[in-house]
Structure of Cobalamin biosynthesis protein CbiG:
Amino acid sequence: MITVGVGASTGVTVEEVLAAVDAVLPPGARGVQLATLTRRGLEP
């Protein structure tokens, strides 16, 4: 299992976050989960 901690500035889109995560994962990575602060997870 790979856990990626996500800290983002206000206004960052889901697509931008996922693209950044994809850019650093090793090829064929499976079992990936994202972690962030609750207040960030509640942003649109």
